[in-house]
Design brief:
By secondary structure, this protein is α+β, with helices and mostly antiparallel strands. It has two helices and five strands. It has helices at 24-31, 91-106; strands at 2-8, 11-17, 50-53, 56-59, 72-74. The longest helix is centred in the last third of the chain and has 16 residues, at 91-106. The structure holds FE2/S2 (inorganic) cluster. The site of FE2/S2 (inorganic) cluster has 12 residues, from loops. FE2/S2 (inorganic) cluster is lined by residues 39-42, 44-49, 59, 61.
Length: 122
């Protein structure tokens, strides 16, 4: 069993996994009980599992836990409520950083913005 340390929604978390290739999505949902990221296709295509990793949108079903060691992960749970969409200091920065995540979940079939030159789903 190996332990991994990462920051999730601003808090340091230590999780254990027997498989270094275990998808980040499973650890977020099962070990940390964060259900904002959803299991959709499991293939990195639908965007239902999108989270921010060090500020960039990634599909958590396609990122292994070993690749997340020491990184910062933000899920939908950290983005606030409809009444108070951005919390605390640095709201403008938080709003800008959350745009890829908000976009991916507002239009899950399109997913997060992709690399230039890579076509998204119609
Ligand atoms: S579950 Fe569809 S992209 Fe991750």
């Amino acid at each position: 069993m190996t332990f991994y340390t990462l920051h999730v929604n601003g808090k340091a978390q230590r999780v254990e996994s027997w498989d270094p290739d275990q998808p980040l999505l499973y650890l977020l949902r099962n070990a940390l009980s964060l259900h904002g990221p959803k299991f959709g296709c499991g293939l990195g295509q639908c965007g239902a599992c999108t989270v921010l990793m060090d500020g960039a949108a990634v599909r958590s079903c396609s990122v292994s836990i070993s690749a997340v060691q020491g990184k910062s992960v933000t899920t939908l749970e950290a983005l606030g409520t409809p009444e108070k969409p951005d919390r605390g200091a640095g709201e403008g920065r938080a709003r800008r950083q959350s745009l890829p995540l908000r976009h991916a979940h507002a239009h899950p079939a399109r997913g997060a913005p992709r690399e230039p030159g890579v076509r998204g789903l119609p």
